[in-house]
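Retro notes (design track)

What went well: tokenization of the new backbones is finally stable.
What didn't: we kept losing track of which sequence belonged to which structure.
Fix going forward: every design gets posted as structure first, then sequence, in one message. First example under the new rule, 416 residues:
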């Protein structure tokens, strides 16, 4: 197959979205397909484009055998809703132009949302290229923003977003979702069952092994402390503030230390809060390259995976799967689908989102408990993710969806 993939987020950008699309592209290429990715110049979450891309409209690169066309996008280190929308829509226009001018043919366009607006570029290119459109829905927007408390249900942005959402669902030839709950939600919205396919988020276990790039315990003088790490985006939906509040409660227990690794719109506020309370049991680490994450996780006793509230019932954070792929036990602060995975796997402990008191008590118990219990959590999590969420298997599932849709279109063409 000749596959065109539209990815608003793509490595070296951090986060689950880029990891998912990079993993799918990498494995589809290894399975013999021609894959082209159109992505913006790297800028997330800092809002700053690296020096090597500045002053350019587009570049062509190769990553793991996949051609990556990177385009200009509007960016700004300043936060704000209008700037975020400008970033989204600039990529819609730039990716549409880049895809239309690409000197090759495509059988299928795979557009991955959110942001929802990327579906417009995918639809345009599918029509121009006479290709099928597969809409990959990682999160249902604008519903996700309402569940997280970012917008009210009757906000203008939500009303228009829902109209665009329904339009794109109608126009897409096929739709992939990442969880059972998301499939149920789209069925309830009237999306035909024959259009829907589950292709879960996953992990590339082969790249999650420690590389010993750096001794993180030595670097931060952690010694034999009990270390709890959060590594990922520090944004609205992640609810990382619960970690800082737990650090306040554990201020007099210096044997428990927190590492928060990453960046996002909430980081500056959390750093200010930690400084205000003179918390010496928490260390903020700048964003790290993806290849360093396994070493960071292996330096920790437990990985922390929070979500902002229990309303995000169909969210499965990629960092949950990554922690298990690195054989780390997890303390999960979430409900819904993520909680179900924890209960099925036995890969750690689950507590209520936002409960700093419960998090502090859980970590205190783990720190003085039998280390063999942590090893059992880690082993169960690793086994579960290897059996159910290994990226090569999931890429085969996506391959099946794409091949089936192309076969349908070819059959229609032959009858015509």
């Amino acid at each position: 197959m000749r596959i065109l993939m539209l990815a608003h987020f793509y490595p070296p950008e951090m986060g689950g979205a880029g990891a998912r699309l990079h993993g799918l592209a990498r494995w589809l290429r290894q399975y013999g397909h021609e894959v082209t990715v159109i992505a913006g110049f790297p800028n997330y979450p800092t809002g700053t484009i690296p020096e090597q891309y500045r002053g350019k409209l587009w570049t062509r690169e190769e990553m793991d055998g996949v051609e990556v066309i990177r385009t200009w996008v509007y960016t700004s280190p300043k936060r704000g809703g209008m700037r975020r929308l400008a970033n989204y829509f600039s990529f819609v226009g730039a990716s549409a132009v880049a895809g239309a001018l690409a000197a090759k043919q495509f059988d299928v366009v795979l557009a991955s949302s959110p942001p929802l607006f990327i579906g417009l570029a995918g639809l345009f290119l599918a029509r121009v290229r006479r290709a099928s459109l597969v809409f990959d829905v990682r999160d249902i927007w604008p519903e996700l923003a309402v569940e997280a408390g970012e917008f009210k249900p009757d906000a203008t942005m939500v009303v228009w977003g829902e109209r665009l959402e329904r339009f794109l669902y109608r126009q897409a030839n096929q739709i992939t979702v990442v969880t059972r709950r998301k499939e149920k939600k789209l069925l309830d919205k009237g999306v035909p069952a024959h259009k829907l396919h589950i292709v879960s988020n996953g992990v590339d276990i082969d790249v999650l092994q420690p590389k010993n790039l750096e001794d993180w315990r030595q670097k931060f003088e952690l010694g034999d402390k009990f270390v709890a790490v959060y590594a990922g985006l520090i944004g609205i939906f992640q609810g990382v503030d619960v970690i800082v509040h737990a650090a306040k409660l554990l201020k007099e227990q210096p044997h428990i230390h927190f590492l928060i690794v990453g960046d996002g719109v909430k980081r500056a506020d959390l750093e200010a809060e930690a400084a205000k309370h003179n918390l010496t049991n928490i260390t903020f680490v700048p964003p790290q390259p993806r290849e360093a994450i396994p070493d960071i996780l292996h330096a920790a006793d437990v990985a922390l995976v929070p979500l902002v509230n229990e309303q995000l019932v169909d969210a499965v954070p990629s960092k949950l799967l990554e922690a298990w792929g690195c054989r780390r036990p997890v303390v999960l602060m979430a409900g819904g689908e993520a909680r179900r995975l924890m209960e099925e796997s036995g890969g750690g402990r689950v507590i209520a989102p936002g409960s700093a008191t419960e998090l502090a008590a859980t970590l205190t118990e783990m720190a003085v408990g039998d280390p063999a219990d942590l090893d059992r959590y880690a082993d169960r999590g690793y086994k579960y993710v290897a059996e159910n969420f290994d990226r090569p298997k999931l890429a085969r599932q996506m391959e099946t969806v794409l091949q089936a849709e192309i076969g349908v279109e070819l059959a229609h063409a032959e009858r015509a």
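Added context from the reviewer: The chain has a mean pLDDT of 89.
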